[in-house]
Every structure is written in structure tokens, then in C-alpha cells.
Amino acid sequence: MAGGGFATSAGGNDFEAKITPIVIISCIMAATGGLMFGYDVGVSGGVTAMPPFLKKFFPEVYRKTELKIGLDSNYCKYDNQGLQLFTSSLYLAGLTATFFASYTTRVLGRRITMLIAGFFFIGGVIFNVAAQNLAMLIVGRILLGCGVGFANQAVPVFLSEIAPSRIRGALNILFQLNVTIGILFANLVNYGTNKIKGGWGWRLSLGLAGIPALLLTLGAILVVDTPNSLIERGRTEEGKAVLKKIRGIDNVEPEFLELVEASRIAKEVKHPFRNLLKRKNRPQLVISVALQVCTDIPAIHRHQRDHVLCAGVIQHIGIQE
């Protein structure tokens, strides 16, 4: 179960299906959620290094970046709680929004959840582009984070459910590919906008996030919801009609029956989070947690080392924060 939904074809059943235009278009439009996520992640690192951006919102950081003596460490230069809040608020909002997105994905459907994500993205872009103070920046980042939470919950499930089983993995990885492309595109944009005279390049960097946001919103309006979602919500006949439409064939009975059975089994799971603690699921849970912990340990050590170094340097040169 992912995102409040249910998975099918776990045993490798390869049902008859055509790769229809509606499947291709739906997957491309939906995967722009990954593009949006990647762009939001990549763009923040670039704009926070732009002098006009720092001078307007973080003058203390700007002063330290202009200081040529003593502060050789970037950690020392960018050690500012407001700046850290600007960066981390997206991730904190995304984490919180995921819990709500799980509910909407299950109850309202994948398409509506992607539409909500699109609205959050558009709202966040507007706040960031028009920002006149730090509060507007943070509100914009929080809205973007909510969009990330909703999109990351619904888009992978949507891609998995709408794609034919034989190419499901290939289409689902499109989301992760778009995340990487979004990061690359954000860095290229930041490189160009940093050279713009007049000090407004950072607004363009933040504003270009509106392109994937609009694509995701438009896609969510145009695409159909998945048969899995419709069947899960009791709209079985509509789900069967959509299944015929996206598969491009009339004989969808075997796959339809499996979807109905998977929905029935999924509804019998009353406490999905409690099931994570069961003995049979413990190895997967331990591996998932250990992977994140082991990934972050080197970063924590670097943070502690740089913090001590920065404190010594600041004390030495007499900078009062």
C-alpha cells in the first residue's frame, strides 16, 4: 500500500494492454511533479548565494560574505538561523503535508491530490517572486513544501497505477528522473540569473518554478483518475470504463477482477502504521531507518566540526552576531 492506495500485479501478472496516448500524456504531465520538486530543491542553494538576495533578506550573512579576512569557511559565512529556516521550511512542510496527502490520495483520489499540489506550488511561487520580507519568503517556501508533500505522495502512485504492468517500472522511474532534471535545470538557471544586472535575478530563478507548477496543475485537470482509485472509492463501473480507455482494449476483465480483489484486501487493513511494527515487517523497517541514519551521520559530524571552527574564528576576529 502506498499513499493510501493499493498495489497490483505483485506476482508478475502481465495483463494485455496497449501503450495508449492517454497513458503517455498522463505520465508525462504527472511526472512534472518530480520536476517541480527537483527545481525547488536546486534553486534555493543558488539564490542564497546571490549577493542581491542576501543583501535584501539576510544582510548579516551578506556582510560576512563580503568580509575577505577570517571567514574562509562557508559554514561560518552562512551560519544564520533565518537563512536555515528559509531552506529547511520546505522540507518540514513537506513532511507534515505528507500525512494529509495520504488521506486525500485515498479518499479524494490521485488526480485531486495532484491538483492540490499544483495549487500549493503556484501559491508558493507567487509568494516567493513577490517577496518583500523574510516572512513572505518563508510562507512561500512552506506552500512549496506542502506541494512537495502532496505531489510526492500522489504522483508515484498515479504513475504506477495508470501504467501497463510491463512498463510500470520504466514509467515510474520517470518521476525520479524528473527530480534530477529539475535540480540540473535549477542550477543552470541560477548560473544565468546570477549574471543579471539590477539585482532581480533571484526573482526570475524563483519565478521559473511556475512553469512545472502550471504543467502539473493543467495535467491534473486534464488526466483521468486511475482505475485503482475509482474502485477503491466504490465507483467500480467507472473504474472499469477508465481501465478500458487507458488500456486500449475491451477485454480488461482479468485485470479488473484483480483490482477489485486488491481493493478488498486493502480495506481489511485497519491499522497500516501499526502493521509496520509487526515482526514480519521489521527487517524492511530497520533497513529504511538505518539507511537514513547512516546517510546523515557524516553530515552531522561535518556540521559539528564546522560549528566549532566557526565559533573559534568569530571569537578571534571579534564579530558579534
Explain the overall architecture:
The radius of gyration is 23 Å and the shape is elongated. The chain is mainly alpha-helical. Helix 1 (21-47) runs antiparallel to helix 7 (134-162), helix 1 runs antiparallel to helix 10 and helix 6 (110-129) packs antiparallel against helix 9 (201-207). It has helices at residues 21-47, 51-57, 59-66, 74-77, 81-107, 110-129, 134-162, 168-193, 201-207, 210-222, 227-232, 236-247, 253-267, 272-275, 282-317. It is built from 15 helices and no strands. It starts with 20 loop residues before the first helix and ends with a helix.
Layout of helices and strands:
Layout: H1 21-47, H2 51-57, H3 59-66, H4 74-77, H5 81-107, H6 110-129, H7 134-162, H8 168-193, H9 201-207, H10 210-222, H11 227-232, H12 236-247, H13 253-267, H14 272-275, H15 282-317
